Amino acid sequence: MVKVRTSDKFFGMEIKEEATYGTDPAWPGASIPFIEDTLTFEDAEFAESAEFGAFGAWTGAEKGVRIVKGTIKINPRYNESWFWLLFGQGFGSEDLVVDREIEDDVTVATGLNTHIFSNLGVVTPKGLSARTFLQGPTNGAGTFIKRINGLICNKWTWEQPAGAEQPTLEMEFLGSLIAMDSGSGVTPALLTTTDVKVKGFDMDATRTKSHLKLGAVTMADFNVSAFTIVSDRGIETPEEYLNNALSLSKPGQEVTREITVDIEGFIEQDFHAVDKPSLEHFNDTATKLAFAYESATDAIAGKPYTVRFDMPNMHWTKFEAPITGPGQIPLTASGRAALGDVDNFDAPFNEHNTVPPAGSTDFRVLVHVDGATDEPSADTKFTALADAI
Questions:
Q1: Cis peptide leading into 25, omega within 30 of 0?
Q2: How far apart are CA 131 and CA 29, in angstroms?
Q3: Contacts for 273 with CB less than 8 Å, ≥ 6 apart
Q4: Rounded distance, CA 116 to CA 95, Å?
Q5: Does 381 map to a domain?
Q6: Residues 72 and 130: beta-carbon distance below 8 Å
Q7: What's the rounded Cα separation, in Å, for the pair 255 and 249?
Q8: Cα 301 to chain center, whole Å?
């Protein structure tokens, strides 16, 4: 009996985009460092009716469609070859702007690629496949690889904990097929360990493009100790026709998506002033919000890696400051994003206003990476957008 451990030579995970939804791509894919993989399957079960007589038990059961469900959890990194490819599965649009940074869509920055992820309509990516290598210390006969096809992200959570720790990204998926392939002679793709990580202290105010800004009238710095952004995309498994009862069609958006943000901090003397969450919640006034990380490492010379989260029309749904003991008084606030025009942002957050229709989005994420090192080839996760590559 040989146990499989996460430290084994033949353990790991690869992901790859599908050319056609649910169809296994040509492997290998991109190897990813991950924290959790809970992807498994559920079978719809149709139990027979309880029939009365001398049975005293069910006489059988029929299995229906098999649905893959679960999550992949990782630490974010500035690598378009796998991380931003994976992250982009949680959006409906991706624009690539070559040789520009996220805060300037005019000045040429040769070699710097800006990606703009947003929610445009109800478009979903083609689909993703994943392989988890469970062979253990060897890859001989009798070892196995868990393979899943047709993964569509229905929810993702970006959590920045207090204490300047690394953020985490948890992506929840629905999938169409799970299989256990033979691991005999198969080796996982080499894991890249040099990717620049997104870190909590990349939000320190001494860094030029690090931002924690919000405000209904004028966006201003706001002190935050932790935050969580959740994108519930409203994607569910569709109801099937009888002639397709044992198969899963590509999941799509069935209900209104919901983008929420939760922030944590402490009460300050001016907590109820103009452009502060307390007053905006009290007056039911929408706010503009931008959270950005600037790395200590350059993507290209003089241009650090940067990622930013934008909500042009965010409504506070809760503001609380419970007093339960001595010391600093904590605050928590929650909000929900609605459609808004990117032009409403203060400069430079109104740059890259390319998202149709008319610059409206409820939420967008901008990141710039080294086009040569981090992105050797542009991805093609969307099929219905002329401006997405």
A1: no
A2: 9
A3: 279
A4: 5
A5: no
A6: yes
A7: 17
A8: 28
